[in-house]
Specification:
Blueprint: E1 2-6, H1 9-26, E2 31-34, H2 38-52, E3 62-65, E4 67-69, H3 80-87, E5 99-100, H4 109-122, E6 128-131, E7 153-156, H5 159-165, E8 178-181, H6 184-189, E9 192-197, H7 203-211, E10 229-234
Parallel strand pairs: 1-10, 2-3, 2-6, 3-5, 6-9, 9-10
Antiparallel strand pairs: 4-8, 7-8
């Protein structure tokens, strides 16, 4: 695992965007696995700026998103499809048909999840998978449990995850209780994983993921087994990682 220690969120965002942009320049037809939430917002802002400057193009890029809330329409302002349109897709030259976000309104979740995994396999898996990490160590919406779920699946969100996301909704009761999440199998199938973290509230999850046992009780710990992981984190998020771990 390669670790970039950055001063703050802004520096973390710029470094992450540089890595994503490098992937696009190196392989214009790459498959990007994309994440949502507050962590990648800054990176997307840089990517949009660089596109507008003519430095990168998404014309041939395919994208596959990690997850989506069950029950939210793509037009809902807290849906992850809406997030991606607002923060990236509407501002660059990626073709609409080249973007994939799980369908939170699907009437047949089991079939949808199977088809989502089939699509990921059909494009040769993800070239670069962008991940954030939850306070409880979740990646995507793969919550702590007694086993790693390999396939795309419907997950019951942990109370801590609902609490963390409540700030985006009018009330805590408005936060969806389920999501469709890409499974650990697809994440681990990515050729490269870019894990980003910012803030002291992520320090325990980062320390456990890097230094603790590999266990489904901390889903991020599975990344210890991936051959090509880059961690970009600010000083606060790395504050509990022993000095010897960070080269």
């Amino acid at each position: 695992m390669r670790i970039y220690r950055e001063k703050d969120y802004e520096a973390m965002s710029r470094r992450a965007a540089q890595i994503i942009a490098g992937e696009i320049v190196h392989n214009p037809a790459c498959v990007l696995g994309l994440a949502t939430g507050s962590t990648p917002e800054g990176a997307y802002r840089y990517l949009v700026d660089w596109y507008k400057q003519g430095l990168i193009s998404f014309q041939d890029v395919l994208s596959v998103n990690l997850d989506e809330y069950v029950g939210l329409a793509p037009s809902h302002d807290q849906s992850y499809r809406y997030f991606m349109q607002s923060n990236l897709f509407d501002h660059v030259d990626i073709a609409a048909e080249n973007t994939r976000v799980p369908d939170g309104l699907t009437k047949d979740p089991e079939t949808f999840c199977q088809e989502y995994d089939a699509y990921i396999r059909s494009v040769g898996y993800v070239s670069l998978q962008l991940l954030g990490i939850g306070r409880n160590g979740h990646i995507g919406f793969n919550e702590p449990g007694d086993h790693f779920v390999k396939q795309t699946h419907v997950v019951d969100l942990a109370e801590s995850t609902i609490d963390a996301n409540a700030r985006f909704f009018a009330t805590r009761d408005d936060v969806p209780k389920q999501a469709i999440s890409m499974g650990i199998g697809a994440i681990m199938g990515a050729k490269k994983v870019l894990l980003c973290a910012s803030g002291e509230e992520k320090a325990d999850a980062i320390c456990s993921s890097l230094c603790g046992p590999i266990t489904p009780k901390c889903p991020g710990s599975i990344l210890q087994l991936h051959p090509n992981v880059v961690l970009v984190a600010d000083e606060a998020a790395l504050s509990k990682v022993p000095a010897g771990v960070i080269a």
